[in-house]
Amino acid sequence: MKFVLFVHSLASDWNHGNAHFLRGIVRELRRGGHEVDVWEPVDGWSRSHLSRETLAELESLFPSRTYDRSLDVAAAVDGADVVLVHEWNEPWLVSAVGRTDATALFHDTHHRALTKPDEMHRYDLSGYAGVLAFGGAIAAVYRDRSWHDHVWTWHEAADVQLFHPLDVERERDLVWIGNWGDGERTKELEQFLFTPVRRLGLTGTVHGVRYPEAGIRAVAGAGLEYRGWLANHHAPDLFARHRVTVHVPRRPYVEALPGIPTIRVFEALACGIPLVSAPWDDSEGLFREGDFLRARDSREMEEALRSALADPSFAERGRETVLARHTCAHRVEELLAIVAQLDVAVAA
């Protein structure tokens, strides 16, 4: 089949973690023999934060077509069997795709549907065949508010063509890759990352963007080194050079949207690094008990980190779960099953 994707960016993952999953989906669709066109806005905010040289490098690795407001949307989707439109697109583009004859699916991977519903009201989904929500809690919002009659849960997953264990020397104890994030987990980072690391005297590295001066000081105060943005295709090497990582979810997901981990959980487990998680409710049963360690407070995080460093063997169990259930290849299978339900007539 021919798929057309409209994304915020495939090339840039600066403060744009959804690019990780979308890259994997594009890769797996092409591996399956499907034709894939990807479009992204030429002036997207994620692209704008990269240097010209860095952007050129990433565009060579993850190529797409760029567009502006002059795009002939009907021509762009001509011949497509399925059009996938990510929710970090402008309302005019979302509406324009819906007005074509294409079978279109809206892909939502954010908590705005619950926390900022007024923003979602800007999107006209009347011409869409359905919605792909990255967690059951988000899917429920669409159903409960009658935003669409056809909604499927489509979790993110690991691109295991990229994320897998590497045989390199372990250099430091702990790595955390995550953005600071609008105050949505400031207290949680102190409780579940900085304080335990400081008490244990661990060495380690922090990568991410939008860190205020106070945040950078907190990293240094814990004895960790802040290294800024990391292009995501380098993350497997970074995981391999550290002995443990942590998952510190943003508050909206913990309090209102259970069942949705960050994509870093899938990616870290795929790389075989031991993971310790701050509290979140795996209400959709994505993982097995023992795939990673859990901590309810700072003291438990300290003990769990100590245990993971002493015996990291449980990490292989988490990797087994990802390989069995949570790869981008699995998600492509799910997508094709959804398309089959829509009875899409494949273009000649």
In percent, how much strand structure appears in the residues? 15-25%
**Separate helix tally:** 16
Order of helices and strands: EHEHHEHEHEHHEHEEHEHEHEHHEEHHH
Mean pLDDT: 95
Please provide the count of β strands: 13
Main pleated sheet: 7 strands, parallel
The spatial strand order of the largest sheet comes to: 3-2-1-4-5-6-7
Distance between the termini: 9 Å
Large-scale geometry: globular
Q: Radius of gyration, Cα only, in angstroms?
A: 20 Å
Please give the oligomerization state of what you see: single chain
- Output the structural class: alpha/beta
What's the helical proportion of residues?
Answer: 25-40%
Low-confidence stretches: none
Write the layout of secondary structure elements.
Blueprint lengths: L1 E5 L11 H14 L3 E7 L3 H4 L3 H10 L3 E3 L5 H4 L5 E5 L4 H8 L5 E5 L3 H4 L1 H4 L9 E4 L2 H9 L6 E3 L18 E6 L8 H15 L3 E4 L5 H9 L3 E2 L8 H6 L1 E6 L3 H5 L7 H8 L4 E3 L15 E2 L3 H13 L4 H11 L2 H14 L7
Parallel strand pairs: 1-2, 1-4, 2-3, 4-5, 5-6, 6-7, 8-9, 8-11, 9-10, 11-12, 12-13
